[in-house]
Amino acid sequence: MSTGQSMLVIIGLLLFSIFMLTVYRATSSRVSLTLLNEATITATGLGQSLIDEIQVKAFDEKTVNSSVSTSDSLTLSSSFGKDAGETLVTHFDDIDDYHNYTRSDTLSRLGQFNSSVIVSYVQKFNPDSKTSIRTFSKRIDVFVMNQALTDTIKLYHIITY
Amino acid sequence: MDILTATVIGGAIILMIIGLNSYIDSSSRETYNSNMAQSNLTNFSETIESDLYKIGYRIPGDKISNADSNRIVFFTDINNDGVPDTLSYYVGPTSELINTPNPNDKLLYRILNSQVPKSSSGGVVDFKLTYYDSLGAQLTYASLVSQTIRNRIRSINVYLKIESLYPVDGIYAGAEWKKIIRPKNLN
């Protein structure tokens, strides 16, 4: 075999190796994508479930047993979080008790899903804008994380009193 | 010498092609099975969610007549015609699907009134229901034989796991879904 022929064989093998690596990479990314889809479906269900749980609670600690007519009567955003005596989630009685709340769900296939919640006031006519001023609109942001997810799943819901 | 070298290189290439072909084949089957499981899971979960949210709709009295870990029977006006309907969900035993390669799959039944049970295998391997009262405390299955306790149900945790009918390298692709449903007419 001449040097030229050897070079052609080596180049051929090199090209073939590159082709094989490309195929492996493409197939692997497809499998990863399938896993990502699975995690997204599960995480979305868990996130929606948490939002459902929160939205059936009272709008504010001040509206649990009575009604309020001015937003200044509502809980300050700096006081969001569980109230005194609320040691378990089953004790939570209003939306902002869930501020900074975290929960873990362990499922058999994809393991642990960690969910966290942020509650904030939003402007009445611009619900995408969070504000520290008390308003009759609260936004619930739910974040769900899992090792199979490339990014955190984010869901939000706005409740108006 | 040239023939020997060519034989070695050719043999190596053929082995690489066979390996690649096998890898592509198994990963394609795995992806297909996984996509099927996810698609089935989405379809099942949409139907279950839609039905369970309607528990007690336009029903003045008892709303749930049977509540167990893998069976629920409830009343609702499913088609909004003013006539109460009875809807039930339950999973059958694995022995109903002994001819499928997956030894754990079962039939998930949905029965509306006295209609013929509609079932679908779809790879359901687990369907579990858990019931909670207004304080979020879990109600035991033993206690749920009592109608008084069933009337305390405010939310239902549904867990559904789907697996492919065929394994790839001994592993069944799958997907799972878990959601706590709070029917408006129970709250």
Mean pLDDT of chain A: 91
Mean pLDDT of chain B: 91
Cα(first) to Cα(last) distance of chain B is 85 Å
Poorly predicted ranges of chain A (pLDDT <50, ≥5 residues)? Answer: none
Describe the main β-sheet of chain A briefly.
Answer: 5 strands, antiparallel
Instruction: Provide the gyration radius of chain B in Å.
Output: 24 Å
Q: Assembly type of the shown chains?
A: heterodimer
Provide an overview of this structure.
The complex is a heterodimer of chains A (161) and B (187). With 161 residues, chain A is α+β, with helices and mostly antiparallel strands. Chain A has one domain (3-160). Chain A contains 1 helix and 5 strands; from the N terminus they run αβββββ. In chain A, strands 1, 2, 3, 4 and 5 form a 5-stranded antiparallel sheet that branches. Chain A is elongated. The mean pLDDT of chain A is 91. Chain B has 187 residues and is α+β, with helices and mostly antiparallel strands. Chain B has one domain. Chain B is 30% helix and 32% strand. Chain B contains 2 helices and 8 strands, in the order αββββββαββ. In chain B, strands 1, 2, 3, 4, 5, 6, 7 and 8 form an 8-stranded antiparallel sheet that branches. In chain B, strand 4 and strand 5 form a beta hairpin. The longest helix of chain B has 52 residues, at 2-53. The mean pLDDT of chain B is 91.
Layout of helices and strands, plus pairs?
The complex is a heterodimer of chains A (about 160) and B (about 190).
Chain A: H1 3-55, E1 102-107, E2 111-123, E3 126-131, E4 137-145, E5 153-160
Antiparallel strand pairs in A: 1-2, 2-3, 2-4, 4-5
Chain B: H1 2-53, E1 64-68, E2 71-76, E3 85-91, E4 106-112, E5 118-132, E6 138-139, H2 147-150, E7 155-163, E8 174-181
Antiparallel strand pairs in B: 1-2, 2-3, 3-4, 4-5, 5-6, 5-7, 7-8
